[in-house]
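for the writeup, i need someone to sanity check this before i put it in the appendix. the sequnce is what the collaborator sent (i think, or maybe the updated version? ugh). structure was predicted straight from it, no edits. if anything looks off just tell me and ill rerun, i have time this weekend
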Amino acid sequence: MPIKASEFIQNPDGSVYHLNLLPEHLADTVITVGDPDRVERITRHFDKVELKVRKREFHTQTGYYRGKRISVISSGIGPDNIDIVINELDALVNIDFKTRELKKETTSLDIIRIGTSGSIQEEIPVDSFLISESAIGFDGLLHFYDSEHIQNKEFAKAFIKHLEWFKQKAAPYVVDASENLINRMEGPDVHKGVTGTNIGFYGPQGRILRLALQDDKMNDKMASFSFNNKKLTNLEMETSAIYGLSKLLGHNALSMNAIIANRAAGTFSKDPKKVVDDLIKYSLEQLIK
């Protein structure tokens, strides 16, 4: 049965509504970035760029890096935008755009986030790289989907107890990264950890400018938390949503973090642009191995 036009929305040219892409525009390996300007910082390393599409904050380029076809897409900031991006990426490979029906055979994408992040553990310094082995979502997005079966409930339960989680906040959820992508992207100088995905940049990450916080000890509690010898290592704003939706839809996902701030030490990278560019080059090389 065709999906209703109000649910799967297409533009007049047949492209998917927000991303403005057609199925043939997308590679099976997708790099996501928050900043639209970061797309070209990646594709400038490509041998060839065959497509450039831009709509709102969603900027996509598809091309080849050393013979491997890769799409790079900007999501903007936050899990709400990730809800759009991951669902529409999945639609591009798993919905027939002419009949508006689900395909009988599904396609699995490799989705790699390359983004910035702040460490909350002093031993993970600025200018380092970190792979998110798991992500804790504070955003509540995954609770809108039938997702209980992919969540690490014991991990989330221990976290809620340790932080004395305020019940009016969304319940944290925990989802693991793709083991296959971890194995492909890891390296001797790359840290691994558990990433916290926040719903905002200031209060939700414990920053105080003029507004008082509901829990001004939250970051200290997060830094002291451990479950099965795994610590919460860093904070950002997209990873848990990418992991959760990707796992539900059958895609492989991994988040590569450029650590540009250390909240425990109160330090910030002197050259964050270089750290991100170094992570881009590292990630592209790992993807072609």
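The chain has a mean pLDDT of 97. The CA atoms of residues 42 and 281 lie 8 Å apart.
thx in advance!!
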